[in-house]
Design brief:
222 residues; alpha/beta; three-stranded parallel sheet; globular; 6 helices
């Protein structure tokens, strides 16, 4: 493990595509999420707060341009983003991260992508897709709380690439080495930002120590 000069991120030489958020409030909220006693309302709030911090750190790489603005006292210079941002949650668990991102980037557009696993082939299949047109002109941030095997995330990125999306960032709450490696192999140009880096997957594909099924715990469908 190797600290970047930026103290808000931790980089791992063996996982050059992965950026771990290093923040005390994130570490506190990851603990809230892991706790089996946490109810769904508290769980949703913690996911949203983590998404806030992810959005702040990811958005530091966005470019801005100078504009003129008139304050109540005089004209002065300000700034605005030079590119549009599209936030795309992977249904359904990714929906829990949307509010936190929109609080930081309120003018972002929101798309949706739904994937389900074919029970025979075990390959992720798209069942819903709706995004703004001309994704090639947008910065796309794909949201999914859990990066486990990486199969769904890789498929979602592949679907976006087919629609000419070339600037894609993947944001998650918890990542496992298997998922990070999957994206490194399939989409090495895609940066991953996560709030926790966990040990491994169990034989059912759940992250250990993890936090359970993020979708069920977010929406109370346990």
């Amino acid at each position: 493990m190797q600290n970047q000069n930026d103290k808000d991120l931790i980089l791992f030489p063996e996982y050059p595509n992965f950026n771990l958020i290093n923040h005390p409030l994130v570490q506190r909220d990851i603990t809230v999420l892991r706790d089996t006693a946490t109810d769904c309302e508290t769980f949703r709030a913690a996911i949203s707060r983590i998404a806030n911090i992810l959005a702040v750190i990811i958005s530091r790489d966005l470019s801005i341009k100078e504009v003129e603005v008139e304050s109540p006292l005089e004209k002065t210079n300000g700034y605005k983003l030079t590119q549009e941002v599209v936030i795309i949650p992977v249904l359904r668990a990714g929906l829990g991260m949307v509010k936190g991102f929109l609080q930081v980037i309120p003018d972002a557009k929101v798309g949706h992508i739904g994937l389900e696993r074919d029970e025979e082939t075990l390959v992720p299949v798209e069942y819903y897709y709706k995004t703004p047109k001309n994704l090639i002109e947008h910065e796309v941030i794909l949201l999914d709380p859990m990066l486990a095997t990486g199969g769904s995330a890789s498929a979602a990125i592949a679907f976006l690439k087919k629609r000419e999306s070339v600037k894609i960032i993947f944001a998650c709450v918890v990542a496992a080495p298997e998922g990070i490696n999957k994206l490194k192999e399939d989409h090495p140009q895609v940066k991953i930002f996560g709030a926790a880096f966990d040990r491994e997957l169990n034989d059912k594909g759940y992250i250990l120590p993890g936090l359970g099924d993020a979708g069920d715990r977010t929406f109370g469908t346990l």
